[in-house]
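Hey all, quick one. A colleague (J.T.) asked me to put the guanosine-5'-monophosphate job into the tracker so the inputs and the C-alpha cells live in one place instead of scattered across chat threads. No bug as far as I know, just bookkeeping. Sequence used:
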Amino acid sequence: MSGLPHTIADDIKQVLLSAEAIEERVAELGRRVSADYAGKDVLLVCVLKGAMVFMADLIRHITIPVGIDTMAVTSYGAATVSSGVVRIVKDLDSPIAGKHVLIVEDIVDSGLTLNYLRTYLANRKPASVKVCTLLDKPERREAPVTPDYCGFEIPNLFVVGYGLDYQERYRNLPFVGIPHDYVWAKDSSQDIPDSTLQEV
Ligand code: 5GP
C-alpha cells in the first residue's frame, strides 16, 4: 500500500487510447472539418454528456467560424445497452433550417441513438446532417449509420474516460481505457455492460 488516495486511474485495467494519441487525432479531425466546411454556415451539435470533452477539444482545432449547440438524450431500457427508443431530454436552443449540422458524438455502438437523432434533426430542413464521433464500435451496429468523421474504431469492449462514463464516473480521465473487473462487481444491482464480457 502506497498510502496515496485511490484515483480513478487506479480503476483502469488497460489504456486503449492515450491522451497524446487522442490529442493528435482530434487535431486532425479539426483540420478536416475546417477544410470541408469552409464558407458554410455550420452548427456543431454536442450530444451531452459523453461528447462534451471531445467537443471542447475539437472546436479548438477548428479554424473556421462555427456555431455550437447541445442536445441531451436518454435511451430507454437497460443502463448500458441502447434500446433505440430515445427520449430528448434537452433539445437545441435555436432553429437549424438551412444550416450544415455536424452531430458530435462520443461513441457509436449499435447506432440506434444516432439513427434516431439524425432523422429527428433532418426533419427540421437543415442544409445537411453529418456525424463526427470520437469512437466507433462497428461490430455492434444494428442501425445503418456510418460516421462521416471518426476518431478511432475500437473493438467490442466497454470503455470509459475522455467524457465517457460508467455510472457517471470516469468522464474526467484524460484517456480512454477499460476498467478493472472489480468496477462492475462493486454495484451488482446494475447491468454489466455486455461488451465487457469479452476477453481483453
Ligand atoms: P448506441 O445507440 O449507438 O448503441 O449507443 C450510443 C451510446 O451508448 C453512446 O452515446 C454512449 O452513451 C453509450 N455507449 C456505447 N458504448 C459505450 C462504451 O463503450 N462506453 C460508454 N461509456 N458508453 C457507451
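Adding what we noticed when we looked at it: The mean pLDDT is 91. The longest helix spans residues 19-36.
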